[in-house]
Amino acid sequence: MTVIIDGVEYVPKAMVGKNDLTVLDVFAPYLGTKEYKGIVEVIQKWYYGSVPQTAWCATAMSWALAQLGLMKKTLGTKQENVYYFEQAMQKMGVTKISGLGQAKSGDIVILNYSTAWKPSSSKHVTAYTGKRDSSGNVYCVGGNQSDHLQESLYKTENIRSIWRPAYGTGGVTNLNHLPKL
């Protein structure tokens, strides 16, 4: 299965036998899914046991990490709030990237849209695609992006932190177990 992102064909690593799968590979088959349908419904039921129709960027990222066998190594437990998601990565010793120049495709990006950083801040978690526009803004894939699981463009000024999970250490070498929707 291939996916077209901005006119470029993307072949998930799971389809070519790589063992360095990232959250981008997990999300690829579901790009374009509108909230509370399809995989978003699966993610909310995985997290909450129901579909409460609440913000879901952090739950989607938790789910993607779980599919790679990395949720416990990266977060310790499921997270639904970006503030606590970032705290969990720090506590678990996930590699914090020193700046966008060091970022790689699949790195987790925490965005902050508030002057303060607290649980109720306006914030988001997404995954860097490795692409930037002519202004330097970053393309990222994640959940709850314009009510979809999709690729979106974000201003670098809103990046709070960038993290690199220990991809390849979760014991998952293919994504055949992902729901076929």
Describe the structure in brief.
By secondary structure, the chain is an alpha+beta fold.
Description:
The chain is α+β, with helices and mostly antiparallel strands and 181 residues long. The protein contains five helices and eight strands; from the N terminus they run E-E-H-H-H-H-H-E-E-E-E-E-E. A six-stranded antiparallel beta sheet has the order 3-8-4-5-6-7. Strands 1-2 form a two-stranded antiparallel sheet. The longest helix has 11 residues, at 38-48. It starts with a strand and ends in a 17-residue tail after the last strand. The model is unreliable at 13-17 (pLDDT under 50).
Topology:
Blueprint: E1 3-5, E2 8-10, H1 23-27, H2 38-48, H3 57-67, H4 71-74, H5 82-91, E3 95-97, E4 108-112, E5 123-132, E6 138-145, E7 148-154, E8 159-164
In one word, what is the shape? globular
**Any low-confidence stretches, pLDDT <50, length ≥5?**
13-17
What is Rg? Answer: 15 Å
Structural class by secondary-structure content: alpha+beta
- Largest sheet, spatial ordering of strands: 3-8-4-5-6-7
Percentage of residues in helical conformation: 10-25%
**Count of individual beta strands:** 8
Count of helix runs: 5
Beta-strand residue fraction: 15-25%
Measured distance between first and last alpha carbons = 13 Å
Mean pLDDT over all positions: 91
Q: Which H/E pattern describes the elements?
A: EEHHHHHEEEEEE
What does the main sheet amount to?
Answer: 6 strands, antiparallel
